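just leaving the lab so this will be short. what follows is a protein written twice so to speak, once as letters and once as structure tokens for the fold. can you read through it and tell me how you think this chain folds. thanks a lot i owe you, the record is right below.

___
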Amino acid sequence: MTNKNRVIVITGAGSGVGRDSARLFLDSGWKVALIGRRMETLEETAQNHIEAICVKCDVSDYKAVKDCFSTIINKFGRVDVLFNNAGLAKPSQTIDELDVDDWKEVVNINLNGSFFCAKEAFKTMRNQKPQGGDQQPHCGVRGEPHQAPVQSAASCEPPQWMRDHGVGAEQ
């Protein structure tokens, strides 16, 4: 399958590594589904590229994620790669100072959102011909002293395959 027939879904595509990745894949001939909470930043990232679709979606809302993937499938017909990049960070603090609502928001986006997107992507990939199946999490879950144990995508290294293409490299 050539790049022009491959579809990548990138969450958190409106800024940072997500934006750089979306532009890299668009420039490489891929069809790119840009997912994020702010349509204006997604559209700035896509730059009216014909092979891009921008979908406003809060990844912590499972129904919104299901609707989002339905929109992507209606446009492109398949998913080959999911880049689970959406993430949220809160200011560093010790666990006893961490607000419970802040904790829930981080977990809902960073953990539940990644799961919801992976679930919908896998369901699509499993049932298509030829099958897709590359899911790239941007960040693992780790703990550090004086920080909430769930870290955002913004605080993690991009995967090696992206660094090899200049995404997330020091400017």
Q: What stands out?
A: The chain has a mean pLDDT of 82. Helices lie at 16-27, 39-46, 62-76, 100-127, 160-163. The radius of gyration is 16 Å. The chain has five helices and five strands.
